[in-house]
Structure formats: structure tokens, C-alpha cells
From TrEMBL:
PANTHER family: UPF0703 PROTEIN YCGQ. This is TIGR03943 family putative permease subunit. The chain crosses the membrane at residues 33-56, 76-95. It holds the Pfam family DUF1980_C. It comes from Glycomyces mayteni. Keywords: Membrane, Transmembrane, Transmembrane helix. It comes from the Bacteria. Residues 142-236 form the DUF1980 domain.
Length: 237
């Protein structure tokens, strides 16, 4: 690839990384701590792009000196910019129900059965992550959940005709994302759409099911209310 094309690619990639950091869209791909890796990397790429661009301009000037024109190079190399521009203009959304319905729950039998702290008595309902609720329901047999109204937030997916609440859990980035799933028991409103974000308030129920993908346990919650909410800035846990 010509050096001027290299400079443009580096500039686009570096600028794209800074844009993702500025808008917060980087949270669709990586954990929040990656912000402090993305910003320096973006700045470094832009700096390298500037140096490469200057060198390309100087090299072209030297090649033109005394000849009136530079050496021709295939313009098809500029087509390498197409996927870079496409990536910046059509950035994929955070993973949702499509991926969750095809991936087994992250809560597996190999999880540690450590003790769980008691939930506060002066908070009603108690907000919990789906992963915390699932772990308490399965590995602590709901002992710390009983007697409390619980608030969960996630998106809707369907296992057959049955709606479930889910959220993707990532260790590092979207490439290793796996869902945690919670089943609904009780009076569940009709018309829930896949990928719709909702806030669920309810109570622990000992009912459990099995994930159709990997056979692991899926806990349920006795539904009191289901309320639509906007998708959070960070859709992963």
C-alpha cells in the first residue's frame, strides 16, 4: 500500500477509536476499563498517521524533483480503505437476544459456592444484577433472597414461546460474551419484544429450568411488575 494510503488508514482507525471513546460506544465491545487503553492507542495511531503522511509528501516531492511527475502506483490500493470506512459508518450494536438465544447461560455448575452477604432490609426493592440473582438463587438456594422484593434489569429473549430476562456478561470484550438468563413465573404481560429492555420487580421463587443450549440451571423470579426502560449506556455486565 502507498504510504499516503497508509496514513489515511491510520488516521481513520485512530480517529474512529477516539470517537468510540468520546461517545461511549466502545462499551458495546469492551469493558469500561478499556477506555484508558483505547484513548492512548487512538492518539498514537493519529500521531503515526501524521508522521507517515509527512514522509509520504516529502518522498513524493523528492521523486518529482527534476522529472515533473512521480512514479505511478495502482489506485486499487485505495480500495483497502473501504472496510475501514464501513466499520466506522456501520458500527454493530451491542450483543442482544439473537446471540443470547444461541448461547448457553454463563451460570454453570463449576461456579464456586461461596457465602453471599445478606441483602439490606431498608431497601425495597433491592436492585441486583442478573448474575448476582442467578448465583444466589442457584448456589445459595435463595436463602439470601427470601423475604425481599428484587429489582432486575435486562433485555427480553425467548426460549420457545417463553420470554426470559437476560443480560450479556463479558470478561474482557464482546468476543467472550455469554448470557445470564432468568425465567419468569406469575402474571407476565403479553407483547414483550426480543431485545426490549425492561425493569422487573418480583420475589424469589425456587422454580428452576434448564438452558436448552448447555443444560445448565436457569433460575426464575416471581413477577410483580415489568416496566419498559431505555437501554443502558453499558449493556454488558
Amino acid at each position: 500500500m502507498r504510504r499516503d494510503a497508509q496514513a489515511v488508514v491510520l488516521l481513520l482507525v485512530g480517529g474512529g477509536m477516539l470517537r468510540l471513546a468520546w461517545t461511549g460506544d466502545y462499551l458495546d465491545y469492551v469493558k469500561p476499563y478499556a477506555f484508558w487503553l483505547i484513548v492512548p492507542a487512538g492518539v498514537l495511531l493519529i500521531a503515526v498517521a501524521a508522521i507517515t503522511g509527512v514522509q509520504a509528501w516529502q518522498g513524493r516531492g523528492e521523486a518529482d524533483d527534476g522529472h515533473g511527475h512521480g512514479h505511478g502506483e495502482p489506485k486499487v490500493a485505495w480500495l483497502l480503505l473501504a472496510p475501514v470506512v464501513g466499520m466506522l459508518l456501520v458500527a454493530p450494536d451491542a450483543l442482544g437476544s439473537y446471540e443470547a438465544e444461541r448461547t448457553g447461560t454463563v451460570v454453570g455448575a463449576e461456579e464456586s459456592r461461596s457465602s453471599y452477604p445478606a441483602l439490606p432490609d431498608d431497601v425495597d426493592p433491592v436492585p441486583l444484577t442478573l448474575l448476582d440473582y442467578a448465583a444466589r438463587a442457584i448456589f445459595d438456594e435463595g436463602q439470601t433472597l427470601e423475604g425481599h422484593r428484587i429489582q432486575l434489569r435486562g433485555f427480553i429473549l425467548y426460549e420457545g414461546d417463553e420470554p426470559q430476562l437476560a443480560r450479556m456478561v463479558v470478561s474482557c470484550c464482546a468476543a467472550d460474551a455469554r448470557p445470564v438468563k432468568i425465567g419468569f413465573e406469575g402474571d407476565v404481560p403479553a407483547g414483550l419484544e426480543p431485545d426490549q429492555w425492561v425493569e422487573v420487580v418480583g420475589e424469589y421463587t425456587p422454580r428452576q429450568g434448564r438452558d436448552e443450549i448447555n443444560g445448565e440451571l436457569v433460575p426464575y423470579i416471581e413477577v410483580e411488575s415489568v416496566t419498559g426502560i431505555p437501554a443502558p449506556d453499558n449493556e454488558y455486565q
